[in-house]
Amino acid sequence: MASDPAYLETFKQYAKSLPSGEDRDVMEMEYYAEGDRACAILQAIWTELIVERTLRARLRFEGAAQIFDVNGPISTFSDKIIMAYGMGIFGKKTRHDLNLIRHLRNGSAHCRLPLRFNTPEVKLVCDHLLLPDIDSLRAVPPFLLDHPVHNGGEWHDKNHPRQRYIICCYTVICGLFLLPPGNLETASELP
């Protein structure tokens, strides 16, 4: 099999790189201030990246990185959700929301129609996100508290579909960074 040209390999490596602290301001503008379609895709990509990073930290064996490659057994967002849930990294509500995030990302990437969070079909999916309604878990990105809300409203308004989606993604991200494994949801949730 022929290898890719050097310029393409360079781009692929750049695309796989993790952002540094210096990239934070630019990345936050992209994640939160872009249009609805870009927001849906970028938030989901960031969330998937954190799920994968959490899995990689727990799969410590030589060659573990290969299982996340394009043809690896844990290459898709769906595979990562199934594996992380099976390992007890998060509970049923988080799994539910991650699957909705995955569907919204895929739909946003492939939809041929105008797509906004206030599109009734998109809003209905966002209305079914569970984590934004759990006060003890809900996390709002600090960046958003200092910037105007896209399409009006306030960031603590969990009834706005865009805010629900962003808050849900950020809650998962913070939960995987800050909480011990298996504690991403409240103790009141039973298996």
Describe this structure in words.
By secondary structure, the chain is mainly α. Helices cover 54% and strands 0% of the residues. Helix 3 packs across helix 5. The longest helix has 23 residues. The radius of gyration is 17 Å and the shape is globular. The C terminus is likely disordered.
Order of helices and strands: HHHHHHHH
How many beta strands in the DSSP annotation? 0
Q: Low-confidence spans: pLDDT under 50, at least 5 residues?
A: 186-191
Number of contiguous helices: 8
Q: Based on the structure, what is the oligomeric state of the protein chains?
A: single chain
Going by CATH, what is the homologous superfamily?
Nucleotidyltransferases  domain 2
The tally of domains stands at 1
Principal-axis shape: globular
Mean pLDDT across residues: 82
Find the CATH topology: Four Helix Bundle (Hemerythrin (Met), subunit A)
Task: Label the CATH architecture.
Answer: Up-down Bundle
Secondary structure layout:
Layout: H1 6-16, H2 24-33, H3 36-58, H4 77-86, H5 92-110, H6 120-127, H7 142-145, H8 161-178
